[in-house]
Amino acid sequence: AQKVTQAQTEISVVEKEDVTLDCVYETRDTTYYLFWYKQPPSGELVFLIRRNSFDEQNEISGRYSWNFQKSTSSFNFTITASQVVDSAVYFCALSEWAGANSKLTFGKGITLSVRP
Amino acid sequence: NAGVTQTPKFQVLKTGQSMTLQCAQDMNHNSMYWYRQDPGMGLRLIYYSASEGTTDKGEVPNGYNVSRLNKREFSLRLESAAPSQTSVYFCASSEQGSSPLHFGNGTRLTVT
User: Is cis: bond before B61, omega within 30 of 0?
Assistant: First the structure.
């Protein structure tokens, strides 16, 4: 069965600090997808990134970067020079490949607070 | 495009009452999902529909039923609400399994 662990529950940083959100996953499949979602205080869920299990290249998008390491079953998310607008709950999720029946399993989320 | 639309946004029920949460998407997506979000629990899958005409249980299906009315609409029904069903419910859709999910804005349900 697929499982996602986000061991950090709450993180508080001061603006401009870098912060890394950890995600560890479990799966028996060789084909799977990993995701990160953001949930700001307004409550909507915003898709950030999807990686497949065959692509271990790190991804950078502006101040956001993701480090995927199959050897440690981790897909960590780093925010560089954090801003107050980054305050949100961040979810990591995993989907094993099952064709049309694939479905996402979410971690419990990490609440990030960025203080001015 | 509206994306994924959920109604209602808020609802208060008494124990034992029934209600249906509505969800519609206008992105021609094949797959639709219902999740619930509880503090400290993340999002947990209640039911999903991989394609029009099919529905399957997720992680926490007890106390719920679903209907995939057509490709656009996927409703969630609580036949006899219980306080344990107090939660925020999110509907989502995707092109196909493992595609990114597009979420509605959620329904905050309180059962007293």
Answer: no
Residue pLDDT, tens place only, A74-105: 999 999 999 999 999 999 999 987 777 788 99
Q: Angle at the Cα of B101 (from B23 to A101), degrees rounded to 5? A: 90
A62 part of contact set with chain B, CB < 8 Å: no
For A26-70, the DSSP string reads E-S-SSEEEEEEEE-TT---EEEEEEETT----EEETTEEEEEEG
Do B90 and A102 lie within an 8 Å CB cutoff? no
Report the alpha-carbon distance of residue B89 to residue A115 in Å, rounded.
29
Tokens of B80: 């006899």
Is pLDDT larger for residue A100 or for residue A20? A20
Chain A hits for B31, Cβ within 8 Å: 100
pLDDT: which is higher, B99 or A36? A36
Helix/strand number for chain B, H first, E second: 0, 11
Q: Do A100 and B103 touch (CB under 8 A)?
A: no
Indicate the pairing of strand A88-96 with strand A110-115: antiparallel
3-class secondary-structure state, position B98: coil
Identify the residue whose tokens are 């999903």: B48
Q: Could A98 and B43 be called an inter-chain contact, meaning their C-beta atoms sit closer than 8 Å? A: no
B27: left (phi over 0), alpha (psi -120 to 50) or beta: alpha
